[in-house]
Amino acid sequence: MKHSEIEELIDTRKDARTKLADIKRVDENTLKINGHLYNLIVNKNDGFELGQFENTFNPIFTHFDYIVGDIGYGQLRLKGFYDDQRNVESDLKKSSIQDYLIDYCNFGSSYFVLHNLEASKVKENKKPITRPRNRNHQKSNIQKNHENKPKRQPQKQTKPNHHRKFTIRQKSGD
């Protein structure tokens, strides 16, 4: 198969692909994706192209506070990040976006950053719900486990003692 035939096949599949999101441009820097408002805060080298973004976007990205898109070898790659106040791993926080761009993106490549204006807000840490425990039930289980458990017997030494024995002898006199 020739390279030109492969490219044509890829283009026809891209056109036939069903879009997973309803994306509308509100103004130059604002998008509405599945009812959520997004603000385009960084657009380096005009990396944001609406048609390419529509083909790549997946609704799973609506959970993230920030979406970073970088273009390498003609492909758009998306990665989601959370706000710094969220209780997530440090490599998923907004402060690590720059590290991601340096480590995983081509040098000088085009990229963009979208901010989800309607991302779920940070919830306060609530105390975990505790259930009342039935103490009688726990005690009976503990007693049963101890009663049924066989007692441990000391193990016999199976290996012979390989210590050398030395005796001190007096030198015979000349």
TrEMBL record:
<dbReference type="InterPro" id="IPR009370">
    <property type="entry name" value="YutD-like"/>
</dbReference>
<dbReference type="Pfam" id="PF06265">
    <property type="entry name" value="YutD-like"/>
</dbReference>
<protein>
    <recommendedName>
        <fullName>DUF1027 domain-containing protein</fullName>
    </recommendedName>
</protein>
<feature type="compositionally biased region" description="Basic residues">
    <location>
        <begin position="128"/>
        <end position="138"/>
    </location>
</feature>
<dbReference type="InterPro" id="IPR038141">
    <property type="entry name" value="YutD-like_sf"/>
</dbReference>
<feature type="compositionally biased region" description="Basic residues">
    <location>
        <begin position="151"/>
        <end position="168"/>
    </location>
</feature>
<feature type="region of interest" description="Disordered">
    <location>
        <begin position="124"/>
        <end position="174"/>
    </location>
</feature>
